[in-house]
Specification:
Elements (H helix, E strand, L loop, with lengths): L1 H10 L9 E4 L4 H12 L4 E7 L5 H15 L5 E5 L2 H8 L3 H20 L3 E3 L4 H14 L3 H4 L5 E2 L2 E2 L7 H11 L15 H16 L3 H27 L3 E2 L5 E4 L1 H4 L4 H9 L8 H9 L6 E3 L4 E5 L2 E5 L9 E3 L4 H7 L1 E6 L12 E5 L7 E5 L5 E2 L8 E2 H7 L4 H6 L1 E5 L2 E5 L3 E2 L12 E6 L1
Parallel strand pairs: 1-2, 1-4, 2-3, 4-6
Antiparallel strand pairs: 5-6, 7-8, 8-11, 9-10, 10-11, 12-15, 13-21, 14-21, 15-18, 16-17, 18-19, 19-20
Helix pairs in contact: 2-8, 4-5, 6-9, 6-10, 10-12
């Protein structure tokens, strides 16, 4: 294990022997194995531990364990407790994504403060396989299928050469203590469902599926490299204005051999991907003036250019959603399903709304939120100004400027990424459910 660790780190040029490394340690097997490897090779290091406060006393016990373990080895430890649930609510993202954002932002802050060369995290080969499968489900293109990279900026992953089983064997052989995160068994979390349900099914069909996926990841990464070089020619013609507007000339793209691939790669950073790319491509061949809305940006087809900008900068858009008209849904970046048979179990995804179809008036209207808007947040029985809801939820100014509202009959039915209106919720009396997703 230690030899593989050294060889992989040197081959990937992850760090030098004299570098001070910030090591992310949760207290689990992977991060404890990572820390032990670094200790054994005499690497200068500082430990960083995040307490997300999601598992009551378990999170606090893990923090005490990490502090005590490394204090006994005279290794400095930095810890931080995060209001993870509140942050997830304010940003309209999942708990898992909130924890990821919070920890990496803090890791970078500590890295700069201590002048660490890199941030080492404990991702291994099986994590990379799971990530590829998750990205396949979500539809992220070849880049997502390539798995986890050994280095991304200042973040390095020295254990990517090792499997989960190899790490378990190493931990046992070295008698290294660790803490088991009980949430790792929760199959409502997509990564755990992939790990405990999907991969075992794949292994029943092909016992060597892990090796197959790892080999395919390398092929996908090479193919993505070719695509990046191909797209670079068109990206050089993009004009980026001081106000954040992106101007993408599209005549050359339309005349290229792979226009859809180019559009996907160029628009992906702005939230336009998947099903919406072919729709945008078809629209480029029509009249100008058509607009599309992602979770963060708006896109306008203007003569021979695509303009991409924050909605807050030009917040006068209005879309009309009719579930019977797929075209109206696509432009606004939504998709809809009508369910007429229960049981109805609403999704916890803040970008997915389960609404009582018969309580809605169509077409629904999507527009920017405005001063004076109010709604009845789910679970409440009184009206609340949207501006006050944003303040109470500690939503950033940038996020507020990008947030649309969905109206039914002039009333807010849903604030995508945040909360539905209590009056639009499904109840025991609901017989028809509209599932509305923001793409």
């Amino acid at each position: 294990m230690i030899q593989g660790f050294l060889e992989f780190s040197r081959l990937q040029e992850l760090f030098d022997p004299s570098d001070l490394i910030l090591v992310a340690v949760s207290g689990g097997k992977d991060s404890m194995a990572l820390a032990d490897c670094l200790i054994r090779i005499g690497q200068p290091m500082v430990v960083a531990h995040c307490n997300f406060g999601l598992r009551a006393g378990e999170s606090d016990e893990e923090e005490r364990f990490v502090n005590d373990y490394f204090a006994n080895r005279s290794i400095p430890v930095r810890t931080r407790t995060f209001p993870t649930r509140e942050y997830a609510e304010s940003q309209g993202i999942s708990i898992e994504m909130a924890a990821r954002d919070l920890r990496y932002e803090w890791f970078e802050e500590v890295r700069r403060d201590l002048s660490c060369s890199v941030i080492a995290v404990g991702h291994h080969a099986d994590d990379s396989i799971e990530t590829s499968l998750i990205n396949l489900i979500r539809g992220t293109g070849l880049r997502g299928l390539s798995g986890i990279r050994p280095r991304a900026g200042y973040v390095v992953r020295p254990l990517l050469f090792a499997s989960r089983e190899q790490i378990r064997t190493y931990i046992n052989s070295r008698n290294i203590p660790f803490r088991e995160d009980s949430s790792n068994r929760d199959v409502s979390i997509i990564r755990n469902r992939i790990r405990h349900v999907v991969i075992p099914i794949l292994e029943s069909m092909n016992p060597g599926i892990r090796s197959v996926i790892t080999e395919e990841q390398a092929c996908f990464a090479k193919a993505q490299h070719l695509i990046d070089n191909y797209v670079k020619v068109y990206d050089q013609k993009v004009i980026r204005a001081d106000d954040g507007t992106i101007n993408i000339p599209f005549t050359g793209i339309l005349n290229s051999e792979f226009p859809e691939i180019i559009l996907f790669e160029m628009l992906r950073p702005y939230g336009f991907h998947g099903k919406i790319i072919p729709v945008i491509l078809r629209s480029l061949q029509g009249s100008s003036g058509k607009t599309f809305l992602s979770r963060t940006h708006q896109l306008l087809i203007d003569r021979d250019s695509i303009l991409v900008y924050f909605p807050g900068a030009k917040s006068d858009y209005r879309y009309y959603l009719d579930p019977a008209d797929p075209g109206s849904m696509e432009e606004a970046g939504f998709e809809a399903e009508l369910h007429t048979a229960g049981p109805f179990v609403p999704s916890a995804d803040p970008w997915c709304a389960w609404l009582d179809f018969d309580a809605l008036e169509f077409p629904l209207v999507v527009r920017p939120w405005q001063a004076g808007d109010y709604f009845v947040p789910l679970g409440m029985n009184h009206k609340k100004k949207v501006s006050d809801f944003f303040i109470d939820s500690k939503i950033s100014r940038l996020t507020k400027s990008q947030t649309p509202v969905v109206l039914s009959g002039g009333q807010i039915a849903w604030i995508p990424g945040h909360r539905i209106d209590h009056r639009s919720r499904i109840t025991d009396a609901t017989t028809n459910v509209l599932i509305l997703r923001k793409l």
